[in-house]
Amino acid sequence: MNKNKVVVLSLGGSMINGKEGFNLVFLKIFKAFILKQIRAGFRFVIVCGGGRVCREYQNAARAIGINKNTDLDWMGIYATHFNASFMRMLFGNLAQEEIIKTENDKINWTKALLFSGGWKPGHSTDFDAVMLAKRYGAKTVINLSNVEYVFDKDPNKFKDAKKIENISWKDFRKIVGNKWIPGANLPFDPIASKEAEKNKLIVAIIKGENLGEVAKVLDGEEKITGTIIR
Asked: How many domains, the chain?
């Protein structure tokens, strides 16, 4: 395995199944993009989030009185397994037959693509992406979601929120904090951020539709429409 060509993608569930249902237009474009990058020699670990389905189950659970964080996390984790299985089938024989469901799954990765869902309560799939980058020697994690930039505060609440193009892990962690809350909609999980900083990973936060910016990251460019955390 050429570790220099291994990239981890953390694919937000909203990019797979968003507010209006399955994001079929994006999925077709995403597939074509990944196939092009495979032809260029890249291999991808793609970690799938839970998105709308995850939050619907968690909201329903809360509505009927289920408030234990562990239980809510498990609902989200099962949703990620559905999404990862769906994405694996989208790529057919190019994808490893098995998906990673737990941190103990030791898959002999021989194909171009390897898919993973969530593993266990206490963090999001961002953490799993960081740990898989460590396992397979990837230096970069690319986070694709409905977020284009990291902001210094919630842009949905504060009109004066400022976008951030480059930020250190130390400063980023001041924004997201240190506590994981199931269903939280953060640009990158606080627990994952701590682990990424420890392993000196570079994380690129890019809006999912901007796949041209992903290509820039793969080519080693540092000026992108998005946020680089290092």
From this structure: 1
Residue-number span of the structural domain to which 74 is assigned: 3-229
Q: Please answer whether residues 43 and 6 qualify as being in contact, where contact means their C-beta atoms are separated by less than 8 angstroms.
A: yes
pLDDT at site 16: 92
Residue 82 Cα to chain centre, angstroms = 15
Q: Which residues pair with 7 in a beta bridge?
A: 44
pLDDT band of residue 4 (cuts 50, 70, 90) is low
φ and ψ of 167, to 5 deg? -155, 150
Q: How many residues does the chain have?
A: 230
For residues 90-102, give the mean pLDDT.
Answer: 95
What single string gives the DSSP state of each residue in 174-214? HHH-S---TT---SS-HHHHHHHHHTT-EEEEEETT-HHHH
For 59-138, strand residue ranges (E) read: 113-116
Distance CA 192, CA 75 (A): 19
Nearest alpha-carbon partner for 141 in 229, 203, 190, 200: 203
The answer to whether the beta carbons of residues 206 and 224 sit under 8 Å apart is: yes
CA-to-CA distance for 226 and 228, rounded, in angstroms?
7
CATH code for the domain in which residue 36 is found? 3.40.1160.10
DSSP state, residue 5: G
Q: How far apart are CA 198 and CA 6, in angstroms?
A: 20
pLDDT of residue 1: 47
Measured between alpha carbons, how far apart are the two ends of the chain, in Å?
25
Q: Which SS3 state, helix, strand or coil, does residue 19 take?
A: coil
What interhelical angle do 190-198 and 125-136 show, nearest 10? 20
